[in-house]
Amino acid sequence: MLRRVVTGLLTLLLLVPAAGWGAMALWSGLPADAGVRGAMAGSWIALMLAVAALAMTRRKLAALVIFAGAWAALLGWWSTIHASNDRDWQPDVAHIATATVEGDTLTVHNVRNFHWRSDDDFDQRWETRQYRLSKLTGADLFLSYWAGESIAHAIISFDFSDSAPLAFSIEIRKQKAERYSATAGFFKTYELATIAADERDVVKVRSTVRGEDVRLYRLDIQQRTALGLLRQYVALTNDVATHPRWYNTLTANCTTVIFGMARRLDPRVALDWRILLPGKLPSYLREHQFVTRAVSLDELTRRSRIAPRAFGAGLDDGFSSRIRQGVPLPPGSTTP
Fold first, then answer.
1. pTM value surpassing 0.85
2. Ranges of the chain with pLDDT below 50
3. Who's near 67: CB < 8 A, 6+ residues apart?
């Protein structure tokens, strides 16, 4: 009796997530209407329940064969679903940045510099900009909170002494009329987009148009580390432009992609549960000395909020310098 109970529990522990994942994969990935997708997802759940019932009897081998065959078919189909850069994209992700480095000059194509009046009313501008790598002074992290204190969107912005900052945002590439779903983001629903942008676009729209709580953290990293991270972004965005890839809510999102690049550059970048909840990153950054420790975490958070300084009319040339006023600098920094 005990062995049957243990076997039953182990079977459920295996088949419940198998039923759920398979059903969601079919619902998200099948190119059919909702009725067909629902029927296929329901059929998959029924099949997994039938396998579970067989496994509870003496026909365990039959259950194993059916289970293995079903998953071979499902994963075979799943492997045929490929990401694409050729879809009817929403305007704000219509282009992915590409970049080249020649000597000291970084040239970035498709830098987004929209003027936003609302989420549906904006002037589109895609620009080519050049930066001198020798004038790179450091990097900053923006966290834009949109769902409580645990969930935020991360943006890295590179500072130059002779030009405006260059911001990079890892985003989902939504098609027209497509909506975001964190659950759907696990199942090859959205392509990943690397957006290079002016801070007056990618940062300001979140704070002043969407009403998100945007916070700015001046990173304590050496210039060579900032340069290495910038080169990692150049390599990433060129690769995504050539080889499209899927966004994934857990493994390939705005934070995990950044940390994957950063770990290759700095041994202090350790794996941590807070990477999966980017809203909690400030405590991680302070603990590992990536931001100043001269003030408390509460004080750092209070002074990081840019909302009181974010509003400005028109093209707002003073935006980047204004939002940095009062934000604590790393020790020994000469960046204004």
1. yes
2. none
3. 15, 18, 48, 51
